[in-house]
Amino acid sequence: GWSMEGYLEEVSASIKKRVGDHPVLLLISGGVDSSVVAGVLLSALDPEKVHLMYIDTGLMRKGETEAVRKSLEALGATHLSIIDAGDRFLHALEGVDDPEEKRRIIGDLFVEVQKSDIVGKIDGDYFLAQGTLYTDLIESGKGVGKNAKVIKSHHNVRSPLIEAKRNAGMIIEPLDRLYKDEVRRLGRLIGLSESVVGRHPFPGPGLAVRILGAVDREKCRILREADAIFIEELHRRKLYDEIWQAFAVLLPIKSVGVTGDARRYGYVLALRAIVSHDGMTADVYPFDTKDLLEISSLITNSVSEIGRVVYDVSSKPPATIEWE
Ligand code: XMP
């Protein structure tokens, strides 16, 4: 029968055989998927051959870049480039409010930064590893069934460079037969820390698809602070592990509020928390009202630009998990 140990043995052997003496490049997103791929590569291959690249897009969550650095160093990574590309991403996104346009810009810039900042640093013809999951293939319409549709373009599946590597037969996707919960089991099997393995999924385009409308540095800062409070409270209240994915969304509207005796217009923040098996369908997490009210107060008390907090009570379908 099928076992995770068997799966790991099989993918490790197949990676070793395919890669031979070539280097492997893995783009790290900071999420559980690419961290598990990093762990698989570092255990299957000579770590000297494994090049990890993390692009800080300026669209990451609070403290994320440092957390990523620590977890990869703990896995024994020796070649880890952290590229600070925040200015480039934010500049490219200026004034862009169409969600698919944002994804396209971010995807293209990922590839550009990758070309300019890393490719020349790796000697020889390298393989590209990816944390693609079974569900990514379904949702991008690559894989499965005649009725597969492109629901959202996941930039991590369709960049030209990745296509070129795919056509050259130099792509490694060790998770492409796994669902998210299986990726977590694999992560535990290879000794990843629970804080990495248990982490909620985070989309490649990052906060750009959680700031509805045009993205700027200030909105990133506001959302980052609010999201960090939400997530920290979920940990503190021991709710984090009951929830499959939770995050805050900054809406492109301001609503009226009152501070002292003055009317003030503040941002509206939506909180999203869902339970799911694989992200394909999702149910709303049924918070105790008390938790929601307390979290809402904490956010509006600490992030002065936010005047109102709402809770998204839509399941998937018909809504998607992300708002864009
Ligand atoms: P949706 O919003 O389509 O999300 O219900 C399903 C899962 O996919 C994640 N997601 C993305 N991940 N690039 C990614 O790497 C993307 O463009 C993207 N869009 C959505 C989402 O966070 C959820 O876990």
UniProtKB/TrEMBL annotation:
EC number(s) recorded for this UniProt protein: 6.3.5.2
Protein name: GMP synthase (glutamine-hydrolyzing)
Biological-process GO terms, alphabetical: asparagine biosynthetic process
Entry function: Catalyzes the synthesis of GMP from XMP.
UniProt KW keywords: ATP-binding, Glutamine amidotransferase, GMP biosynthesis, Ligase, Nucleotide-binding, Purine biosynthesis
Positions contributing to ATP binding: 29-35
MF term (GO), any: GMP synthase activity
Keyword ATP-binding assigned: yes
Domain of life: Bacteria
Top-level EC class: ligase
